[in-house]
Every structure is written in C-alpha cells, then in structure tokens.
Amino acid sequence: MYAFTLERPANVADAAKLVAAGGKVLAGGQTLLASMKLRLSAPEQLVDLGGIKELVGIKKEGNAFVIGAMTRHLDVGSHAEVKAAFPALAWLADHIGDRQVRAMGTIGGSIANNDPAACYPSAVLASGATIVTSKREIAADDFFLGLFTTALEEGELITAIRFPIPKRAAYEKLRQKASNFPLVGVFVTQGDSGVRVAVTGAGNGVFRHKGLEDALAKSFSPEAAAGVKIDSSDLNSDLHASAAYRANLINVLTQRAVKKALA
C-alpha cells in the first residue's frame, strides 16, 4: 500500500469536514482496502467511520426500519425484528459474500459504492427506501445514477437508510462462484404503492424493470412474470455470462422471487 493518514472522527459533523477536505471514507472497507492493496486506489487520507456510534443500529419507526449506515450485514441478517417483519431484507443481508465479508461490510458502504453487482442497492430500490444523509433525504429512485455513481455530493455522508416494510417481498440471485457477487439478483416487493422490481448484476447499475412491474401489478404470480419478454440489448455480456443469459435469468429469478414472496 501507499502511505496514508488515518482519521477516526467521533461524530458525523467532523467526518463530513474531513471528507469535504479530501479525505476518503472508510466504512466496511470491503472494496476500498482491496483496491488499495492492488494499488488501484491511493488516497492520502482515510476517514474511518467506525467510531461514530450514531451510525450504528436498527430501529423500527412506524411501518419502516431505519438502519444506520455503519450497521454490518451480519447484524441486519440476524436482527430478530427484521427477520420477522421484512424477511427478504434479512435474507439478502445474510447471503452477501461470505461470513468474513458480512462481519465487516456495512450497508452504507455498499450503497455509497453502488457496485453494479451489489445486492443491497436492489433492496433499497425495490423497497422505495429513503437514503438519509448528513445534508438531506434522497429517494431511492433519485439516488442510483449509474456505474459506481450516486447522487451523493462532495462531503455528503449516508447516515441511515429508511426501509418501508412491504406486504410481500423476496430476493433471489444466482451467484458467480468465484466472487460470490450475483450474476443477476432480483428483489421484488408488493406494497400499498404497488409492485416494484429491482435488478442488480445485469447492467451498468441497479435498475427497475417496468415490464415486470406492470405484469405483476395485474397479477402477482410467477405465471405473470413468465410472460414478460426481457430485452437483452442493454444488459452486460462478459466471460461469466452473455446478455441473453442474463435476460433469461432476470425472468427466471423474478418468477422464483414471486413464488417465495407468496409463500
């Protein structure tokens, strides 16, 4: 690694000042530290958020869960209230990467990084969640802008994510065996505002699929999803899977997710 300084602020305000001055945020470190080891990233100053207690924890507020940005995947996956009221979210968290990743990775770090094959962005987008930052609140539909790109401004930190609890929800994915990232992941929710379907791993960022949403709004059933043709023209094609294969996976995984949600 290159030489760098490590700052450990005790509150969000101090962390935001350091980041605005050029510091690089260290949340769970699952992407950043690997990039530094490979010398793909060489920040001169790291701002470790691990000591900010207000960024950790899960609480239920009305019909929503508010999850602090520095809450580990392992804690979301094992949280009794989340498992009871929003099992799809708990299942997703409990199946990210391997146990070592789940013990260190954070929900805020995953969402801020916005890896095109990350699991959490699909849950945020499909749930119609709200990203709470040090400056404002951002709707999920306005937050994810593309490949590793979000609506976060310079010096703006995610402090929490507010997840409305849907009536039904499920997440299904097919893992790429070497990395444990999903080749494709599909998160489906049905709530008071309708049906939302978010897809990760298939394109240059998480996205909603209107065709599937429209079909499932008419009939929330695997058969309705099966009848939707998935356009592969904007999907990724690489050594792991072709665009056509990913298109087929979107359809199959949506059917599985709906079946699981109904069960």
The CATH architecture of the largest domain can be given as: 2-Layer Sandwich
Distance between the termini: 49 Å
**Into which percentage range does the β-strand content fall?**
15-25%
Global mean pLDDT? 96
What do these coordinates show?
The chain is of the alpha+beta class and 263 residues long. The chain folds into 2 domains: 5-164, 2-Layer Sandwich (Uridine Diphospho-n-acetylenolpyruvylglucosamine Reductase, domain 3), CATH 3.30.465; 168-262, Enolase-like, domain 1. The protein has 12 helices and 14 strands. The strands form 4 sheets. It has a 5-stranded antiparallel β-sheet. A 4-stranded antiparallel β-sheet has the order 11-12-13-14, with helices on both faces. Strands 1-3-2 form a 3-stranded parallel β-sheet, with helices on one face. The protein is globular and about 55 Å long. The mean pLDDT is 96.
SSE diagram, text form:
Elements: E1 5-7, H1 12-20, E2 24-26, H2 32-37, E3 45-48, E4 58-61, E5 64-68, H3 73-78, H4 80-85, H5 87-94, H6 99-104, H7 107-113, H8 120-127, E6 130-133, E7 137-139, H9 140-143, E8 144-146, E9 149-150, E10 158-164, E11 168-175, E12 182-191, E13 194-200, E14 207-208, H10 210-218, H11 222-226, H12 243-262
